[in-house]
């Protein structure tokens, strides 16, 4: 801008045949000088001009901006408007001056001032010519302002677009990602990029009610050193954010008495912004961003973004807590189910063995044939109880799954179901048979186990087919029975605890479960789980 103004001032001086020229650009609203250039006079005059131009009412520049018309000084020696500049102008041989406004639309952007050393009066043609030159300069200035505004608007829109994309990514992570720490890491990384921060730290309140916060997630420099560190609630920006329930900012963090100096020095923190992380029910921690790039501190917009991301992190934390509680309830439900089955089957079988054994003892001396019949029956019931007990133990800890893999565990479980429940069960396998990651095999086995358990309890089926397909990127298992079937809800979901458990197990490893059934036409349950590239 300065170079262009200097060139314009020099060209105007030459074209109008003036001794010197000054070009000054002002803020259209306040009149404050934004830039200026002097041609034909020494640096001392430029300093004096800046002092005079800011002089307010009574100055030549003020008169031009007020009248929006040419201001002519026939004698600089006696013109009060030029009194601060008169000694310098007279020393340079200047006798007369002409100031014309830089007009663009409805705004006055400044003035072009021309100085003359001759004795001739300034003619109307000279004024018109000077104004034409000023209009060209004003048009160029307006174009430059519009271009700068357009670039600023484009940067603003790009920033807002990046914010929307970042928020969308966080929303997607909250819906799809089950890994709690991965969600928090993504939130911190998105916030770091959007606020142009050097680093981000996420600290959680400790469960043991201690007066400290633990830095759970850190991105940026010193992340390894800071991760896991304890921050006292008393005497820290994080603690202040918790107590006041408001963002805390500092542009000189290490000299601010609110800060915890150990962590600030370790992270070489210059500027910091800390916001509380809240849900509707409670505050769970603090999110801090530090070292804004450049020489500026964090802004109100940064505080708004940090608050939003902090609340999203709080939601993720609460979701993780609720998910763990759900898993605990699932485990309790599984234990209760096994306890019921133990009572309904094994306990009753053992009671039957006891009764048959007592009857055999009673009959032994009177009718050994009948006594032997009772003993044989007791033996059958005992074998059934043993098979039932083995099946229940296998459900609790299928060692074949850990030692031999999914297929071996399925074969043994299907054989146990067929033996125990007199249900015809067939198994078919295709694709690249291989060991899969433990969580995938565990989820697949448990889903098949639950599916067969539903068949035995509710389907009244005579035959069941289990189909296993090892794909390149996914494992697909379908269980089909010829039982009574049931009505599936409009979204293709069966509203039973067993079905909910299967869906939760599948979703925990990134998979999905589909159910097809109708009354009288059996049921088909298919699960698809990612193989994670087939790495076992």
What do you see in this structure?
The structure is a single chain. The protein contains 15 helices and 16 strands. It has about 525 residues and is an alpha+beta fold. The chain has three domains: about 150 residues, GAF domain (Beta-Lactamase, 2-Layer Sandwich), CATH 3.30.450; about 140 residues, GAF domain (Beta-Lactamase, 2-Layer Sandwich); about 130 residues, Heat Shock Protein 90, CATH 3.30.565.10. The strands form three sheets. It has a six-stranded antiparallel sheet with strand order 8-7-6-11-10-9, sandwiched between helices. The protein has a five-stranded antiparallel sheet with strand order 2-1-5-4-3, with helices on both faces. α14 links the parallel β12 and β13. α5 runs antiparallel to α6, α6 packs antiparallel against α10 and α14 runs antiparallel to α15. The longest helix is centred in the middle third of the chain and has 64 residues. The mean pLDDT is about 80.
Describe what is shown at a glance.
The protein is an alpha+beta fold. The protein has 15 helices and 16 strands.
Summarize the amount of helix as a percent range.
Answer: 40-55%
How many domains? The number is: 3
Low-confidence stretches: none
CATH class of the largest domain: Alpha Beta
- Physical arrangement of strands within the biggest beta sheet: 8-7-6-11-10-9
List keywords for this structure.
536 residues; alpha+beta; Beta-Lactamase; Heat Shock Protein 90; six-stranded antiparallel beta sheet; five-stranded antiparallel beta sheet; 15 helices; 16 strands; elongated
